[in-house]
């Protein structure tokens, strides 16, 4: 049957830097297919990944391997035969968990296969030793009780079988010794890799502590900047409020200036009206003079009193009404002048307050 895929997923592949043994080097530019393969003829498991025509992972799984999750989406394992450490970056934590579970399952299967192989070798070795001990006892009665022909006929096939079995057991023991040496070499390599991984883990822990300190420093700086931003926003709000107040005051000043102009226009009108007062006074004096002349002539014109009495009464009424109107006008003018004076004092106070 050969090798058959038993599980397939996709991930970004990395290898440890062979120079520094610390940094990760990308082995693929994008996510590639990573598969578990089972070889039924050798009873072995491998992880294989191919990027185009390049094989980037060819790792045979042994019981001594360990898959380690270093983050929520990243895992790694060391391969002593390839003398490297492989890393896989997955798209989700579920994919990483499933790959790790499959790794543990395949690792247990490889361990069972190794244990069965060792039990078979030990069984063959014990069977060979027992056969070696039993062969002389089986041959002795034949040599004593039988003839030479019987001895040859009984001993020959058993000796050939035992010889073949012994040779096969010797080759199995030699293979077992070779495998034991290989396993010792792998164990030593794994120990070295574990030491390197421990050093890398310690350095990663130190880096994590450094990153945590840097993160806390960044958080403190961020909080400080946020406080400064809040203070600046408060100052901006205060400045905006001051601008609004200034705008309101400017509008109020414009309104007061408009009112002042209106008051000045009224004052100008009152002044123009006040210029008419001397003319009215002159007219009043003229009328008074005429009235006196009329009174002086009254004695001479007693005969004309009856006709002119009405004119005199009308003139007096007009004079009285004009005086009363003139008095009212003077009172109004005095009030307007007082109001204008008070308005100017209020406007000067407002300018001082601004």
From TrEMBL:
Record carries keyword Coiled coil: yes
Compartments, record wording: Cytoplasm; Postsynaptic density
Main location: cytoplasm
Matching SUPFAM superfamilies: PH domain-like (SSF50729)
Domain WH1: 1-110
Region Disordered, annotated ranges: 112-154
Keyword Coiled coil: yes
A GO CC term attached to the entry: cytoplasm
Compositional bias of kind Polar residues: 134-146
PROSITE patterns tied to this protein: WH1
Name recorded for this polypeptide: WH1 domain-containing protein
Family: Belongs to the Homer family.
Gene Ontology molecular functions: G protein-coupled glutamate receptor binding
Single biological process term from Gene Ontology: G protein-coupled glutamate receptor signaling pathway
Gene this protein is translated from: homer2
């Amino acid at each position: 049957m050969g090798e058959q895929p038993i599980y397939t997923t996709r991930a970004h592949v990395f290898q440890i830097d062979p120079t520094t043994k610390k940094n990760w080097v990308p082995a693929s530019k994008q996510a590639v297919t990573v598969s578990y393969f089972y070889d039924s003829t050798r009873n072995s498991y491998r992880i294989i990944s191919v990027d185009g025509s390049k094989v980037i992972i060819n790792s045979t799984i042994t019981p001594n391997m360990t898959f380690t999750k270093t983050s929520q989406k990243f895992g790694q394992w060391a391969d002593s035969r390839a003398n490297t450490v492989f890393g896989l970056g997955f798209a989700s934590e579920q994919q990483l968990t499933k790959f790790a579970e499959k790794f543990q399952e395949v690792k247990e299967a490889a361990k069972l296969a190794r244990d069965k192989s060792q039990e078979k070798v030990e069984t063959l070795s014990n069977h060979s030793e027992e056969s070696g001990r039993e062969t002389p006892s089986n041959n002795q009665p034949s040599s004593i009780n039988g003839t030479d022909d019987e001895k040859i006929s009984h001993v020959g096939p058993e000796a050939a079988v035992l010889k073949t079995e012994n040779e096969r057991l010797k080759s199995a023991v030699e293979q077992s010794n070779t495998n034991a040496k290989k396993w010792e070499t792998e164990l030593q390599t794994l120990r070295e890799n574990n030491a390197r991984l421990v050093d890398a883990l310690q350095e990663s822990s130190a880096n994590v502590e450094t990153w945590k300190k840097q993160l806390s420093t960044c958080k403190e700086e961020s909080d400080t900047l946020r406080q400064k931003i809040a203070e600046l926003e408060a100052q901006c709000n205060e400045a905006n409020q001051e601008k609004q107040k200034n705008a309101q005051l400017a509008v109020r000043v414009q309104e007061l200036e408009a009112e002042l102009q209106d008051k000045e226009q009224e004052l100008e009108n009152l002044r123009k009206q006040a210029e008419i007062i001397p003319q009215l006074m002159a007219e009043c004096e003229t009328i008074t003079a005429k009235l006196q002349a009329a009174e002086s002539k009254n004695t001479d014109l007693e005969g004309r009193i009856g006709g002119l009495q009405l004119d005199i009464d009308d003139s007096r009424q007009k004079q009285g009404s004009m005086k009363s109107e003139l008095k009212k006008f003077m009172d109004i003018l005095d009030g307007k002048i007082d109001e204008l004076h008070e308005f100017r004092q209020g406007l000067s106070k407002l300018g001082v307050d601004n």
